[in-house]
Write a structure and sequence with these properties.
Blueprint (H helix, E strand, L loop, with lengths): L1 H44 L12 H6 L2 H35 L1 H30 L1 H4 L5 H29 L24 H44 L6 E6 L11 E4 L10 E11 L3 E6 L9 E4 L4 E6 L6
Antiparallel strand pairs: 1-3, 1-6, 2-3, 3-4, 4-5
Helix pairs in contact: 1-7, 3-4, 3-6, 3-7, 4-6, 6-7
Length: 324
């Protein structure tokens, strides 16, 4: 019986350790998938394509996520390292100030109060912009400025409050009233509120602040991913010659109207099922069962050609015009 109990306990411990590993990996995969999807959606929307019609899988979206996440991750890493270094400096400065001079302590408390006020003002401005979306929606930077104001304001106010508590904790405590330096008669004290309720309220406010900062960072990162996808699409449109060149043969005439596309009739021959050839095309992306082809030169009147991967068309990929 004891062996069964021990084995079941060992199994539960292993399952628990596996769960601790799998859960963060699942969350990370979901985040990578989301940001890769947002970036890809903005990229191919520029060419008039709904990314869902391409048929990309989860792995493809995850593989596309590092590029839009590179800048936000670098910025967050630098901010984290800078924040830790700044916190160490503030801790040391507060400790020295408390031990050395009451005047300097008053000065640092004023700085902390100013930082808290600035943070609350930024937080209020971000929340105001959030609820006034109808007035700010035409501003290009709205989707980035709003979450950054909220995250920076909430983080600054929370850090200033935490630093203020740290200063108060390091202040020397006065002797108790029952000591020889103080009279033994009771001294009237202002009525204090419920300390347990106050601590619970403070803890809830701290948790809400963390959630607010996390959601704002998520929003800002999604905005940057979208901008990265759109910028990547514009770079592709400016350099379409970098894409693979395609020669397309079809059985029927396509009546393409995009500028620069060359159409020619194939000579009739025995067993020839393709009658038209199209040149000056580039392969944008290959989906699950279709190809998306664009003209070689960008124009506002261009369209994206969707070609099925079957025997209804014949596709040739042309070598680059560069001698090896």
């Amino acid at each position: 019986m004891s062996e069964d109990t021990a084995s079941s306990g060992s199994l539960a411990q292993r399952v628990g350790s596996w769960a601790n590993i799998i859960a963060p990996v699942s969350v990370l995969s979901a985040l990578l998938f989301y940001f890769g999807y947002v970036s890809s959606r903005a990229q191919y929307e520029y060419f008039g394509i709904d990314v869902d019609s391409i048929g990309l899988g989860t792995q493809e979206y995850i593989m596309r996520s590092p590029q839009p996440l590179l800048v936000p991750l670098l910025v967050l890493t630098l901010l984290g390292v800078s924040g830790l270094a700044l916190d160490a400096v503030v801790r040391r400065h507060v400790s020295i100030t408390v031990e050395s001079s009451t005047r300097r302590l008053t000065h640092i408390q004023l700085v902390i109060g100013l930082a808290r006020t600035v943070g609350l003002v930024m937080l209020a401005a971000g929340i105001l912009m959030l609820f006034a979306y109808a007035y700010f929606q035409s501003w290009v930077a709205y989707a980035l400025a709003t979450p950054l104001l909220i995250a920076t304001g909430a983080g600054l106010a929370a850090y200033a409050s935490r630093t203020s508590d740290r200063v108060q904790d390091q202040l020397p405590r006065p002797p108790s009233h029952g000591s020889a330096q103080y009279p033994t008669q009771p001294i009237s004290q202002p009525e204090q509120g419920n300390p347990a309720g106050s601590a619970t309220l403070r803890r809830a406010a701290t948790i809400m602040g963390y959630v607010l900062v996390a959601v704002s960072i998520f929003w800002a990162t999604a905005t940057l991913a979208e901008w990265t996808g759109r910028g990547r699409a514009q770079d592709q449109a400016q350099h379409l010659d970098r894409l693979p060149r395609v020669i397309l043969d079809t059985k029927e005439r396509l009546f393409l109207r995009s500028p620069g596309i060359e159409e020619s009739s194939l000579p009739a021959a025995e067993g020839q099922t393709f009658h038209y050839r199209y040149r000056n095309l580039r392969l944008l992306i290959v989906g699950h069962d279709r190809m998306f082809i664009v003209p070689e030169q960008w124009s506002a009147s261009n369209t994206t050609l969707v070609v099925p991967i079957d025997d209804s068309v014949r596709v040739q990929f042309q070598f680059q015009n560069q001698r090896p």
